[in-house]
Amino acid sequence: MGNIKKMGVVGSGQMGSGIAQLAAVHGLDVWLLDTDPDALSRATKSISNSIHRLISKGHLTKASNNLSLYSFCCFPAVGAEALRRLRCTSNLEDLSAADVVIEAIVESEDVKKKLFNELDLITKRSAILASNTSSISITRIASATTRPSQVIGMHFMNPPPIMKLVEIVRGADTSDETFNVTKALAERFGKTVICSQDYSGFIVNRILMPMINEAFFALYTGVATKEDIDTGMKLGTNHPMGPLELADFIGLDICLSIMRVLHAGLGDGKYAPCPLLIQYVDAGRVGRKRGIGVYNYAKVTEPVKPSSRL
Ligand SMILES: NC(=O)c1ccc[n+]([C@@H]2O[C@H](COP(=O)([O-])OP(=O)(O)OC[C@H]3O[C@@H](n4cnc5c(N)ncnc54)[C@H](O)[C@@H]3O)[C@@H](O)[C@H]2O)c1
User: Fold this and answer.
1) Whole-structure pTM value
2) Which of 53, 180, 281, 283 has a 20 to 30 Å separation from 290 between CA atoms?
3) Which residues does NAD(+) bind (predicted)?
4) Any residues with Cβ below 6 Å from ligand 1, and which?
């Protein structure tokens, strides 16, 4: 189980594409799978652009392959090698030889369980099945498989190639071996690991999402404008992004799904999602990935002056 050479990544959106990039750059052979061919095309383009950007900024180093630091002139070769190791598919069977599969599809328990059931049937018996879920119970996802001891949460932060943290979540039956192999893999990717018990939202989103939800309530009840809410939290509490900007970056659909998991899983009314957050998602205003969320990104790349609130 310990010798990870081949990885499957399911879901080629913001997170899956970043995880696939990270793995390819660190020397793994990667199959990136999505049911939507357009998502795979977008992912290929964004991975290629991201690798070239990292190379040009000098952030991509051969250290990732456990060799000594590359001299600057060698960086392009690292990028080309990584792109060669990455292949895209819509056929689940292509993941059958993977040593580990990381799932990064829609934040829905039913959809994830169906996928894990299929992965359990087609992957080799020793493979680890990891979920990048932001909030959903690993124990329940694992119950859709015949190998719950090899199912684990491997929660990367957005964007995975840049953010330093991986939150590892052990389900009720996750084995020590699965945990140790997963931790070693995250560390091979240069990440710092934290470990959470399997309770809704784990550590990071248990704390972050209620804050984002509260920012929506502040906007909804007219406490302040979105710009003042974000500026207040940036300059007043030293956060690099305001909570509403961050929600747009994460995806309002993802934020709403997480609030619903917290609300259902922890049973406290304080986790009820803000009606304005629900309304934005209903209107398709899910954030940067769709060009509009709390802010409008259609014409400019930075948050713009307000259009009216929905
Ligand atoms: N966005 C974030 O900041 C963030 C951070 C950490 C974790 N996550 C988690 O990562 C997961 C993915 O989030 P995202 O932001 O990348 O979402 P996204 O909407 O950008 O991408 C999801 C992708 O999954 C694909 N997909 C959906 N169902 C599928 C299936 N059954 N099989 C194959 N592909 C399928 C979709 O076509 C889409 O391309 C979620 O569980 C989310 O909670 C998100």
Assistant:
1) 0.89
2) 53
3) 11-16, 34, 107, 112, 134, 158, 289
4) 10-16, 33-36, 39, 104-107, 111, 115, 132-134, 155-156, 158, 250-251, 254, 289
